[in-house]
Design brief:
Length: 137
């Protein structure tokens, strides 16, 4: 996949977080979008998190209705925990290889909770990177 400009990538990441909150976007679309963001994002942010499986593998999972496996597959290089309370609420917590912080997100969908937590982690990494670039100039 072709890398996209950092500003465009950051805008897409922000829209993804809004979509996670809105519950109007399907888990399949959210998982596909975060896959694309990880695959095409800036190297200094995404290299340690690039998907280890192909887009066709992602499509196979999503087409089979297994968005949870697709979302979990994106966490192979992260520390994570996913829990549910038995009342249709899931909480995902992610720790990336380059971060010492935990990022948590809750949703009625396990896949959306994972996407939201991963998106929050990416957003924080992007914010830190942008600040570091400003400090260098």
């Amino acid at each position: 996949m072709t890398r996209i400009k950092t500003d465009d990538w950051a805008d897409r990441l922000g829209r993804l977080l809004i979509q996670c909150d809105s519950l109007e976007t399907s888990p399949a679309d959210l998982v596909s979008e975060i896959y694309d963001l990880l695959a095409t994002g800036p190297g200094n942010i995404c290299d340690a998190l690039r998907p280890e499986f192909s887009r066709s593998t992602l499509r196979t999972w999503v087409d089979a209705g297994d968005c949870e496996s697709a979302a979990l597959g994106l966490l192979r290089r992260c520390g994570y925990m996913v829990s549910g309370n038995g009342h249709a609420l899931y909480i995902a917590t992610v720790v990336t290889p380059t971060s010492l912080s935990e990022f948590s997100y809750s949703s009625s969908s396990e896949a959306v909770a994972i996407c939201g937590a991963l998106a929050l982690a990416l957003q924080e990494m992007q914010t830190i990177d942008a600040q570091a670039n400003r400090d260098q100039h």
